[in-house]
DNA sequence: TGGGGTTAT
DNA sequence: ATAACCC
C-alpha cells in the first residue's frame, strides 16, 4: 500500500526537521534497548475512536436496524447516527425535526438510557487494557493507549534483517515516505501494527468498528485518527506533524481549546493555528494565565507532553434528566428519586462506596443557557454501610439529604423553573479490606453476618412492600 | 443541545 | 462550588 522510501519528503516547516545525525543517535539508543524515558517525542501513542458508537450498539442490539438510516435520539436531538443516515444529510446533534425533514426514512431509537452504551464502552477499554494497562478513556467512545513499552518489546524481538521487511498497517498521513533508518519510523510502524490488532480484536470479540491514529503524543494521535473515516487507521510520522496541525482551519478545532478559550483568542485576533504559534507568549500569558497560555501555545506546534493517564474505575456516577419545566417540590422529589434509584443500582454493582452526594440543577433563563448550580455533602457513615447490603432502605435517608440540598439551592416558597436535575455519587472508596480475625471484620455487618448477595434492585417507591 | 465524564482553581 | 475541558 505504501512505498518504502529512503528520502523523507519535503514539507512546510522543514526547518524543524530532525537531521540524519540525530536520527542515527536515536537509532543507536533504540538498538541498545534503551527506553528513552521522558523524551516525549519518542513515545508511541494510539488513539482509538469508535465509529458512531451509540448507533453501533443499537445495531448490535437489534440487527434489523443494520442497513437502514439510524439515529439515536435524546429528547428532541439526534445525538448520533450511522453512516447510512449521514449519507442522507443527517448530522450529529441535529434537531429531530430537521433530521426527519432531511431524511423522512430515518429510523430513530431512544438513547436516553446510557446503560448499554456504558457497559459496551467499558468492554472496549478492558479489551485495550489487555494490550497495555496504560489506557485513558475520553468519553464513552474514545481511548488513548501508550504503546511505548509494547513497541520496545517487539523491537527487541526483531532480527535486524527482519526490520527491512517491516510494513505499515493502514494509511500513512500525508503519504509520507517511510525511512527504515529512522528509528521513530520503525517504532510508529510497529505501533500501527498493534493498532490494527486492537481494531481486529474489537471487531472479533465485540463486533465494533472504529478508527485509530498512531503518533508520538496524544494530541497528534487524536488529530490523525480522524483523517480516514470510518473504520480505518492512520499513522503520523514526525516530519508531517506540521502539515497535520496546519490542516486545522481554526484554533477551536485543536483538542484542549474549548469554546471559552476560542472566544478569548478571537478577541485577541487569533483564529488560525499559525496566529497562535506566532502570537507573543508574554501577552498570551497575561490574557489567559501562564498555565493555559503555555499549554495551548505548545499545542499549536503539535507539542503535547501530557501522559496517558490510566482511567481505572470511574471517579463518579451520575444520572441526569432534562425537561421543559419543573416548578414544584413534589415534582422535583419524584425525579430525584428516579435518578437516585438508578444510581444505587450502579454503585451497588461497582462494589465501591460513595462518600459524597451532589445535587445539580439548571434554572430556566433566556440568557445564561449553560449555567448549573450544585450543592454537595458527605454521606453519613451509617448510610454508607447500608449501601449494597440489600434489604435496608437506603433510599429514604438519601432522598431526605437530596431534598435538603435542593431547598438549600431553591427557595421553594418562591416560584421557580428548573430545566435539569442531576444526582452524582462520588468520592468513591474501596470496600472495607477487613480481614478475618481483625476488629474491622467483626464490625462489618456485610462480612461477619449475612452472605454477600450479589445484585439487588432498588425500587423507587413502596420499599415497605418488598418481601 | 443530551447525558454523561474529567481536572484545575 | 464553579469553571473549564472532553465526548
Would you write up a description of this structure?
- The chain has 467 residues and is α+β, with helices and mostly antiparallel strands.
- Helices cover 40% and strands 18% of the residues.
- The protein contains 19 helices and 14 strands.
- The strands form 3 sheets. The chain has a 6-stranded mixed β-sheet.
- The longest helix is centred in the middle third of the chain and has 24 residues, at 183-206.
- It starts with 19 loop residues before the first helix and ends in a 19-residue tail after the last helix.
- The model is unreliable at 1-34, 36-40, 437-457 and 459-467 (pLDDT under 50).
- The structure holds a DNA duplex (9 and 7 nucleotides).
Task: Write a short abstract of this structure.
40% of the residues lie in helices and 18% in strands. By secondary structure, it is α+β, with helices and mostly antiparallel strands.
Describe the structure using short key phrases.
6-stranded mixed β-sheet; 4-stranded mixed β-sheet; 467 residues; alpha+beta; transferase; DNA-binding; disordered N terminus; schiff base; DNA polymerase iota; DNA damage; globular
